[in-house]
């Protein structure tokens, strides 16, 4: 692995650098300069300044559709002279497929029809445009089918740009606990906004360099499972919900640490492992500490140290004809009709 | 000889050439240096040894979307990976014995065909659909949306192992390690008029993982989501082990939005832990006990700045004698205040399982001062039974960050604690982060 690590890192950096060489998105646009509300309240038609919007079939950054009236008639009711304003360019990409021309054609004749969607307009010095919310769309368009099929790209060019879920797509309540169940049937809906790199922050203990709370200690609001001193809690958590651990961690993950703690003897080691099992663990069924009872209740804890396939310690006694003598299988165990000699797990005991 | 790292390097170089053709590029780089101490076990009867660990990490994430190409719509290439170097002892979770290591977390290409009716993804990815349980594999998946709300998906590949080492179940960190995984899901969606999301989703799925032809997982899954009215969503799923011929798990949750700001959830979760072990583990044949969790939660937004949540689940577990059960419990309560760039919260946790358990208290906060932020976190855990001879554990962290120019930021964090395994524990971290979105779409 290490031999080509340099090449891997260089390739990754190349990818990152090519991003840097691309033209970056403009920094925050300058503040708005036009006071919209007094003009809307003064019953000035939006099209007096935004006439060309009626022909706009797409939302284009850097194209403003603003032209202040050249003659003074429109403004003279309030202003002695046409105010001189320098309209700064706007560079932020709306990220939507939207035709003002189509929508305004349906509202022809309605004065200031724009405010049906543009309920909040930017005022002087405002930095935020106050774009119409999605409610403005769904008040006329029902998108239930598109939502269910995760067909968001009909309107949204790129959902992944949003910093937080918006409107009805907000992940409220106990969403963290629900999201696994929802993803089973709707992973493609998740993929509309989230790349799998996002999921991997928490769901990839096999390939991540550390637990999320280690990489993001400053993210105090996030629900990280292994926060704080998890070393001391993990034995209790695995007793409470063994399956939860096993959804992410294979036995060898546990064994990697347990070997370093000398709880498990690593292959080839001559140092005897520390025995943490209580008295009576091995053979005393009346001790209350018998390993068979503990294994029945929580076999996953055993797997944290003793899951080495056919080389597992259990096989020493539990193989057919071995020291333990009795079948370790539970009562529900069904005899298979398959040839067990071809299954290496069966063959480990049934030699 | 073609090694895994050469394959990865080639894939990354290919990805880099794709990135140059993208309209939207997200790039993030995190350089992280951490130093602290870890325990190493010694012979029985001797105190464990303390070793110093100092590691430099470089984490890179690059996503390129809307890559111009003649075939796919919304072609996307996504990569996240990291490399690290241990300056002193090798940390416990390095995944290798060498001081230099690294891994690829995701590296896939995803594209849409036929007006979005067909989605293809290939590379290192996760399978979340159906009974997949976020199976991480090197392979591909295909989703086809059919008429009348039907959809069919299929996947195939090789389960991922840590640091490109053996994928064999016994040595992989992947819970479903092996050399072949495949499966799919047949889904049906009925959209109901009304609010977005209202409708019914049904799915039947299967997952099979084998290791040298021995079964690791062989499951059949069903799942549903029903939102009959705006305020009620029911989500459920079940997995049946075809190998053991038993139910591995089922979960049903009702989520109720009683009124604005108030959500309730009621849950039943049932599972068989042994069926979460690999079927080719010798331990999976020793037991067949079941566990059930029943409970619910409530979360309420009291004001614009204050929200609180509380949930409780009874844990019905196997008892001391075979065939008997015992009941434990798990609860969590949280209150959080957030206003004008400041956050403060408190949590109380409670867990009782068998004759053990713990109660935890946590307080946290974060405050932004323009380009600067500070965050703190303090957690105490009180154990019902002593852990390594100690009754409690106290840990805390303090972080500060500063937003530098041009998408760069720096974070400094320190952690310290008194735990059952450390009389005094402290480690420190410095993190330099670059996080940028680049749009290169031309004015049309």
Largest sheet of chain B: 22 strands, antiparallel, barrel
Structural class computed from helices and strand pairing of chain A: mainly alpha
CA-to-CA gap between the ends of chain B?
A: 48 Å
Shape of chain A: elongated
Order of helices and strands of chain A: HHHHHHHHHHHHHHHH
Greatest interface and its participating residue counts: A-B, 143 and 207 residues
Roughly how much helix do the residues of chain A carry, as a percent range?
25-40%
Task: Tell me the number of helical segments of chain B per DSSP (H or I, 4 or more residues long).
Answer: 1
DSSP strand (E) fraction of chain B? over 45%
Number of helices of chain A: 16
Number of domains of chain A: 4
Order of helices and strands of chain B: HEEEEEEEEEEEEEEEEEEEEEE
**Fraction in helix of chain B:** under 10%
Q: How does the helix and strand content of chain B classify structurally?
A: mainly beta
Average per-residue pLDDT of chain A, rounded, comes to: 80
Question: What coarse outline of chain B follows from CA principal-axis ratios?
Answer: globular
Q: Report the strand count of chain A.
A: 0
Task: Write down the Rg of chain A.
Answer: 33 Å
Enumerate the spans of chain A where pLDDT stays under 50 for 5 or more consecutive residues: 14-26
């Amino acid at each position: 692995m290490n031999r080509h690590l340099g090449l891997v890192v260089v390739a990754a950096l190349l990818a990152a650098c090519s991003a840097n060489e691309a033209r970056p998105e403009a920094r925050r646009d300058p503040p708005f300069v036009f006071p919209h509300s007094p003009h809307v309240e003064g019953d000035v038609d939006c099209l007096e300044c935004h006439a060309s919007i009626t022909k706009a079939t797409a939302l284009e950054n850097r194209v403003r559709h603003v032209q202040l009236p050249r003659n003074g008639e429109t403004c003279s009711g309030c202003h002695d002279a046409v105010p001189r304003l320098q309209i700064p360019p706007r560079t932020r990409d709306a990220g939507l497929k939207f035709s003002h021309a189509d929508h305004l054609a349906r509202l022809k004749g309605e004065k200031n029809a724009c405010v049906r969607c543009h309920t909040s307009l930017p005022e002087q010095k405002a930095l935020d445009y106050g774009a119409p919310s999605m409610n403005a769309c769904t008040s006329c368009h029902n998108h239930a089918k598109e939502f269910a099929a995760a067909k968001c790209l009909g309107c949204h060019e790129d959902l992944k740009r949003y910093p937080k879920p918006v409107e009805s797509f907000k992940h409220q309540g106990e969403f963290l606990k629900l999201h696994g169940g929802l993803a089973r049937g709707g992973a493609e809906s998740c993929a509309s906004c989230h790349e799998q790199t996002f999921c991997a922050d928490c769901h990839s203990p096999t390939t991540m360099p550390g637990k999320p709370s280690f990489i993001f200690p400053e993210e105090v609001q996030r629900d990280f499972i292994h926060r704080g001193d998890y070393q001391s809690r993990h034995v209790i958590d695995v007793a409470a919900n063994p399956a939860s651990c096993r959804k992410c961690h294979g036995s060898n993950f546990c064994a990697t640490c347990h070997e370093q703690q000398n709880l498990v003897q690593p292959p080839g080691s001559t140092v005897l492992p520390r025995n943490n099992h209580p008295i009576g663990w091995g053979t005393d069924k009346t001790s209350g500490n018998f390993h068979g009872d503990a294994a029945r209740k929580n076999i996953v804890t055993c797997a944290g140290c003793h899951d080495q396939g056919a080389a597992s310690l259990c096989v020493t006694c539990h193989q057919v004809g071995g020291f333990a003598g009795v079948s370790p299988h539970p009562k529900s165990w069904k005899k298979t009709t398959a040839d067990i000699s071809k299954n290496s797990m069966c063959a480990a005991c049934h030699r | 000889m073609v090694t895994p790292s050469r394959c990865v390097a080639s894939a990354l170089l290919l990805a880099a050439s794709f990135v140059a053709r993208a309209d939207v590029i997200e790039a993030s780089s995190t350089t992280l240096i951490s130093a602290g101490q870890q325990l190493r076990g010694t012979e029985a009867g001797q105190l464990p040894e303390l070793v110093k660990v100092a590691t430099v990490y470089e984490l890179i994430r690059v996503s390129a979307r809307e890559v111009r190409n003649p075939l796919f719509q919304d072609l996307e290439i996504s990569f996240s990976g990291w490399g690290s170097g241990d300056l002193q002892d090798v940390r416990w979770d390095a995944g290798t014995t060498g001081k230099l290591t690294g891994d690829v977390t995701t590296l896939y290409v995803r594209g849409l065909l036929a007006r979005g009716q067909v989605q293809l993804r290939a590379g290192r990815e996760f399978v979340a659909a159906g009974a997949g349980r976020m199976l991480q594999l090197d392979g591909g998946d295909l989703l086809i949306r059919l008429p009348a709300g039907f959809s069919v998906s299929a996947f195939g590949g090789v389960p991922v192992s840590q640091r490109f080492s053996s994928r064999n179940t016994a040595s992989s960190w992947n819970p479903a390690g092996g050399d072949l995984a495949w499966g799919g899901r047949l889904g049906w969606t009925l959209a109901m008029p009304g609010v977005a999301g209202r409708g019914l989703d049904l799915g039947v799925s299967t997952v099979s993982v084998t290791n040298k032809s021995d079964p690791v997982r062989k499951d059949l899954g069903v799942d549903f989501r029903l939102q009959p009215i705006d305020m009620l969503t029911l989500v459920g799923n079940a997995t049946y082990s075809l190998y053991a011929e038993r139910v591995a798990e089922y979960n049903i949750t009702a989520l109720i939005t009683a009124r604005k700001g108030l959500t309730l959830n009621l849950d039943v979760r049932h599972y068989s832990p042994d069926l979460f072990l690999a079927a080719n583990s010798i331990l999976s044949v020793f037991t067949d006990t079941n566990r059930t969790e029943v409970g619910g939660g409530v979360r309420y937004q009291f004001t614009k700045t204050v929200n609180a949540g509380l949930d409780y689940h009874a844990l019905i577990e196997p008892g001391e004698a075979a065939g008997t059960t015992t009941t434990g419990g798990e609860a969590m309560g949280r209150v959080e205040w957030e206003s004008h760039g400041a956050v403060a919260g408190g949590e109380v946790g409670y867990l009782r399982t068998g004759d053990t358990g713990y109660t935890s208290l946590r307080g946290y906060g974060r405050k932004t001062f323009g380009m600067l932020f500070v965050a703190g976190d303090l957690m105490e855990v009180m154990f019902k039974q002593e852990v390594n001879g100690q009754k409690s554990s106290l840990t805390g962290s303090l972080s500060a960050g500063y937003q530098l120019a041009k998408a760069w930021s720096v974070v400094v964090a320190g952690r310290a604690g008194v735990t059952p395994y450390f009389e005094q524990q402290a480690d420190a971290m410095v993190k330099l982060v670059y996080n940028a979105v680049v749009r290169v779409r031309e004015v049309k």
